[in-house]
Amino acid sequence: MTMEADWLRDWIAQAVQCMFSVWRDADEETFSADTSASIAYAIGTVSVILKEAARDALPVHTLCKLPRPVLCNIWSHLSLHDALALSRTSTALYNVVFYSPELWTDLAAPDGEPKLLHPDDLQVYVKHSVAEPLHVSLLNTGEMFVPQAPVLAQAMPRIRSLRLDCCDLPEYCAPAESLRGSFTWASLLRVLAEPAPHLVSLQLRHVEGELVDMCYPTDVCIPINYSLFSGIAPSLRRCRLGSILLPPVAQCGAFENVTAFSYTISLGIFHVTIALIMEAMPRLEVLELASFTFPTVPGGHERVYEAVPHSALRILIFSFYVMHLRDLACIFPLEQLQELWLTVHTTHIYKGLRELYSGTVGMRLGLQYPAGIVTCLYIDGSALGPKVVVNNPGGLADILSSFTALVWLSVHEHLFNNIIAGAPPPLPALEVLCVCLAAPSAHVDGWPDGRHPARDSSGFLINDSDEPPWEFPALREVRIGVLSGAYGDGPCSIALYDVARWIRHALTFGSAPGAKLDAVVLSGVWVADMDFCAAWKALMEGTESILLEEESDPRYFPTDDMLPQTRSASLFPT
């Protein structure tokens, strides 16, 4: 080792020892996440330098003396690959990693994107981890299947959560040993025939594409022609399958106790598949289906699908490019559902919703990036009404023309720019209009709260459009606020004068000229008028009272972002 390497090793050792001595006696409460993240970054930097200059020189004795909660906090900010590489620099640190159930729970639990494991790392984890049961998350491509298959087969009785994302590379870039034209996928499926007595969560996807693009399932579906886990998976509760064909009902014994099931397939889901799912999973409470087309009635309207009764079902999450609501209502018992989530790409769905849910009294309209409107219906005043997501709907008129009897309406502020695509119809029964302000990150940068007074991307308060005002004959109250708990950096600001001008030019209400609102309510925002008294007076010209609330009313501005992917993640925790 050269003199420069010796100097670098000693300098790093002293720096790391000094850094960790400060937190040697720290506990889980006083050791903040920010501090642990900084230390984790420092560890990663030090380890990279040590690999180049002086291998095996990391002063791990100081690290090993830290309290275990502190170690867990540090390791939670490291990728599994970095943690394994770092553990190999010292026997002492290796023991800390591989004999710590808490660390392995954090490292190996499927969190976000699947972790790419080397087969040797998987084998070491299964062999040395004392955490019971195991959590395994694998991204498999080609040659990785063969060495991982026997390891998984051996560990299956100990696994609690299993996530397998199997990538089938395109033909133009697929190596000879890849899935295409090989038996590696079939060999892995044979591993899934092993009993899994402790398995609670399963995710199995067959995808096609580069490793950086794993969003879409392949058109080629892999069949399971045997009993999954030999029918022995009594603890299995959550299951997600992508581009996997289910076996016959007689071979679905492993799904008997499943309560949440997600099924994604590209070409289409048929009625027989839905009937199979319902029969094989009698305890099913949550069902998520995603495909290009929902099964339509052959021959037009002459044939109606037979209903599939299921007394336990309470939540449906559907994502289909083409779907008719009448077909959905024919198959599923929609009247017993607590939640109905629909993602479609056509606007005719709203006419069907109007017929199905004629008692809709309230509606929330949110914005789904990069395009699309999220609609939440409130049936008979209930906050657990069906939720509908429509991509590229064309305008507010397409939605509201089917629901002209609304009593209250909440609209995302960016959607007011959408009015130019077609003036919304008058809402003769509307009494309360709510405007939900966008998060600061959704606005232009350079201002303390992200809002630009002249070129704000929302622009609903700066009404320079020639469109006629929106008609609300029965309107009595206007509320402007933010989603409950949405602003960690503080509330955004708004000017009373801009609100007064917007009400005066963009809205029409009352039956006589000069009519006033009962109240204007500003919730969870800062008032930012230079001349507060003049702005207050201008706003009072159009309302009887002004209320400033410190927090938004959760009835109109709840924390729910109404996105189906968020709801799906909460129902299928890893």
UniProtKB/TrEMBL annotation:
The organism of origin for this protein: Auricularia subglabra (strain TFB-10046 / SS5) (White-rot fungus)
Protein name, UniProt field: F-box domain-containing protein
Gene3D superfamilies: Ribonuclease Inhibitor
Limits of the F-box domain: 60-107
Top-level taxonomic group: Eukaryota
